[in-house]
Backbone:
């Protein structure tokens, strides 16, 4: 057996070993229902969402660089207002900011987790749509009654 043939055989054997090892190490799929417990549907989402006040704002210029905040027009909510309505989506974060030469201080910042707001927004839309369908049905009934009354002798 020459050296080339030995190297080729070794590479081929290693590749087969790698493919077999890789094929047997398959990932297990984790379903959401296995991961999440105490699952309950959201109700009355619209009543919560209706209490929120969407705002446009700019961060204070002196705080932008200290706290690494974005400049320009922003859209969102005051975390204090959201915390009164939906406390679970307001998260606190401590940031260190300079307070002079070689000195820092900790500032607690509260942020609204906007991603957590999405299910409530979807629930609100569904509640509104159900109300719209109910009103459409009532309107159709009233139109039918009015048409029947106008056709009566």
Residues:
């Amino acid at each position: 057996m020459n050296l080339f043939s030995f190297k080729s055989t070794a590479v081929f054997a290693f590749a087969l070993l790698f493919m077999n090892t890789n094929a047997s190490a398959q990932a297990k799929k984790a379903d959401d229902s296995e991961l999440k417990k105490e699952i309950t549907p959201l109700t009355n989402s619209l009543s919560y969402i209706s209490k929120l006040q969407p705002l446009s704002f700019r961060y204070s210029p002196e705080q932008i660089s200290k706290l690494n905040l974005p400049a320009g027009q922003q859209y969102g909510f005051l975390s204090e207002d959201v915390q009164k309505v939906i406390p679970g989506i307001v998260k606190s974060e401590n940031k260190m900011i300079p307070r002079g030469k070689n000195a820092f201080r900790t500032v607690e910042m509260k942020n609204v987790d906007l991603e957590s707001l999405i299910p409530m927004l979807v629930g609100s839309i569904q509640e509104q749509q159900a109300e719209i369908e109910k009103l459409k049905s009532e309107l159709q009934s009233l139109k039918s009654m009015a048409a029947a009354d106008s056709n009566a002798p």
Summary: The mean pLDDT is 85. The chain has six helices and four strands. Residues 53-129 form one domain. The radius of gyration is 31 Å.
